[in-house]
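HUMAN: Mind sharing a backbone?

ASSISTANT:
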Amino acid sequence: MKMWAGRFRQPLDSEFANWQRSFSFDWRLLAHELAASLVHARALKESGILSSEELAKILQGLEQIASRAENSPGFRDDDEAEDVHHFVEKQLVNLIGDTGYKLHSGRSRNEQIATDLRLYVRDSIDKIQLLLANWLDVTLSRADKAGGAAMPAYTHLQRAEPVLVAHWLLAYVEMFLRDYDRFSDCRKRVNLCPLGSGAVAGASVSLDREMMAAELGFSGPTPNSVDATSDRDFVLEFVNDLSILALHLSRWAEEMILFSTPEFGFINSPDKYSTGSSALPQKKNPDLVELTRAKSARIMGAATTLFVTVKGLPLAYNKDLQETQEPLFDSTETALSLLPLLTGWMKEMKFDYVRMQSSVQSGFMNALAGATYLVHRGVPFRMAHEQIGKAVQECLEKGCELQDLSLEELRQFNPLFDQDFYSALTLESVLSVHDVSGGTAPVQVKQAIAEAKHRVALLRGEVHAHA
């Protein structure tokens, strides 16, 4: 029986009936639909719509549906169910008879889908955050193990200054900590309960909305029934946050790909996450990180689809909103499947510290430290910059580095150069000169790693508190 068929004299066109069904994808909401239905049934009992016996039958039936869904793989094969709500009603009536129809008293599919989606997004945020915490733990472990190893930092994709490998990794830690915070902020707005909103104007029977919200772990009920049944801001926000996460993953992947090429040679991609060429025997292709770039585009595309779908909709519920589900499911599942693989990749990859270290020993990456040397002797930075630039030009003509110039050659640019200038150009000195909070000086990086570990531990506790 259709949930709405009484008004109609003719059956649906068979092709249209199949085409407009959503059960092929919204079955993902089954556990959330059952949880919300259990709570709604209890509210109906408190309002006098259900007797104690009817409530017991409905609760037992819903629990049986949950058990069958978990233990019988083919249970959800249903060519007639219009959506997950219709599926649950059909199964419930099959199990307990016409009493099952009473469950729909005082509610609408408009509020049901809004509730199910909020539960799905909230659950997905918790899973994403746990996976992010795992990735952060592994990255911080790699930063710890990198110790005093140095590498070039780049601007404009040109070598700029030496930094500790750990400092470079901490840049990604900061990116993903911001992502984590965005999901936490999104979760606050997700965590309101639409149950009791009805189709658009509110439930037609007296229901304890505060009780229903509390039992489902929401912070409270949604304040307006018109908004509650048509709001998909929480979906837009969540997938937009996923898009920023995907963007960061793509930037990270791009560097991993570049640094694993022979031209850089800083990273050895793990065999477990690489493939070969069917034609070229020597090849090891970084397929996981390459696909990460492509998967990020998929998630960003889902965000665009959602924005364009919702942008022209009048209040309140419109069938168009059904089309917001697949982009949500696809982007969520893409992120959930990707993050554990990238954590595994990060555990297994190898740094070529020797290659990284040697790459910072040439190319005038100590030029800023040279200018800073003059600044400490009272030379205005702009003049120091120019004088070191002229010294670099001299080196380019001679085919040498700054430290290879004699004091006599250096003093033609500024008489303040002295023997201690050469110690200021060593890698150790170049790193240590950046001794400010957030800088790459070893003492600062060691402290930054400890602080980041503490932050991640707190975040992990937050996720477990939601479980």
In short: The beta strands are 150-155, 158-164, 267-268, 350-351.
